[in-house]
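A quick aside before the break. I want you to see a complete sequence-to-structure record at least once, exactly as it would be stored in a machine-readable document. Don't worry about memorizing anything.
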Amino acid sequence: MSEVSELRERTIFLEDVPLEVARARFHETLEAAGLHYERSERVALDDGLGRVTTAPVFARLSSPHYHACAMDGIAVAARLTRDAREAAPALLAIGREAHFVDTGDPLPEGTDAVIPIEEVDVLDAARVAIRASVAPFNHVRAIGEDVIATEVVVGAGRTLEPADLAALAVAGRTDVEVVARPRVAVITTGNELVEPAVQYPHPGEIVDSNAVLLRACVRRYGEPVAPERVRDDRALLAEAIAGALATCDVVVVNAGSSAGSEDFTAAVFEEIGEVVVHGVAIRPGHPLVLGIARHGRRVVPLFGIPGYPVSAAICADLFLRPLLERLGRRDAPDVREFEALLTRKLFSPLGEDEYVRAVAARVAGNVVATPLRRGAGVITSLSRANCLIVIPRFSEGVREGERVMARALRPLAAIERTLLAVGSHDVAIDLLAGRLAGRGLELVAANVGSIAGIATLAAGGTHVAGTHAIDPATGTYNDEAIRRYAPGMRVALVHFALRQQGLIVRAGNPLGLRSLREVARSHARFVNRQKDAGTRMLLDLMLARDGISKEEIEGYDRIEFTHLAVAALVAEGSADCGLGILAAARALGCDFVPLAEEPYELAIEAAHLEDPRVAALVSEVGSAELRAEIEALGGQIRFIEPSA
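That is the input. The structure line, written in tokens, reads:
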């Protein structure tokens, strides 16, 4: 088939439907089609937490089902105490008129009140003196005080809490009828997909992480059926969807939702049912497909969720979760939003609501938010993020320092405990984060380079800036950069590690590289760091010192943002070398050619050292346990005074 005829056969539906319009259109279509979900199941009380009742639940027993003593003391007939007073107590015979009881005991026959033991005057083994009258049913739990048999214990549509389950138990119920979890088929598509259990995927193979992601999303409110993965074949996809329609309440197809030559989801949905929306004005997640189909008299919602992991997560949250809440008769969770100062400007294309992953923390009284990497395939950025910033579709972005509304992905209390580290990357930061987690603190790093980190510190946008910025004029580290980029701030420098910088090369150093001169001479494929990163500054200084032009380094403009990313490219063979640290080379199984030694320091505004979170960080940096994990850790603090 020619490319032209192949293109003609594609069915392209992509639109730019605004988010709220897409939601409303999908909801109205489901309503008009007669979507009803009435499946229920009976579960044991131990399995009832968080489930939703389908009907009122009535008590089988009264609680208590007998008159119960509510105090330790003596049970008496109240009429015998009617004339009792301090000067003329009522004298009652033990065992006949007064009976010793404990809390929970049945009320003895012939009695109707309990007098607490501390108010009883025991005269001898045969008599007690009562010095005040008591009313009938004093300190007695009458039959049905809590609930009476046939009374409603919990109503219909109740999301069962621990107290509800306990109430059902005392009312004689051992199980409860609840809304059945909607059965959801998750079908992932793609010739390239392999199981997460595959230890070393081949080039071109992709670990099917979206199956894990989407099944986990479903488990919150539904029941994922046995997962299915199909190749990029239209007939196989149609067969898989047809099978899912027979057994499931919702069908989710992942990938194949765009308009590529092997994207069949929208076309198959159209064949078996109706495409309601194809293309929503959100970023990431634009190629989303929403549809419906029928199996007999059942209406089955269809979701074609894009294949990029972040797109899949965003679409599942915006569209799949609300539907499962509706089918399961659950209330939507409260959206926790807060206002934050943006630490870095954000550009955004017009016409799409953009969801930007970010990390937020309270710094010096302000909640600040630092955006993370925005690629739709960077699922780790969503894992690291503790909030989402929504840029409306008619905005071209947000300036640094502006206030934005952020949607919390973690409890607000956790955000208040977060420590933010913006600056240069070092693998030791991850070790430090692990130590701080033991103190109930989360250290989140945004890797933007030394200079950008110092500038963020100066703007009040971070607690810590990791830095190893060399001054070309003096060859010293960090002091001049801080004086230049944070001129009005007194900064504490915490010495974190003395580390080696050098060439990260493939195992065995097949090109025999020993210097930057040899990198240039051999035309080795180099991978660089971003502008203003300390490693980039060091590279430029060494190139100038050796009389090597940037143009002689093949790959000088190829950029990565972390040492580990550089090492990963070298390890898998798409680059021959890059400048980075020894720890990153070791982590990825690469060889290392040392070229320089440098201090890696944590810059902290001196005034923040009294913050308990920052104090905990400094304490951990100086701990013997962390020193044992980080080579040549010093732990000293130097102060850089504000420049005049």
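Two observations worth writing down. The first strand starts at residue 40 and ends at 44. Residues 1-12 have pLDDT under 50 and may be disordered. We'll return to this after the break.
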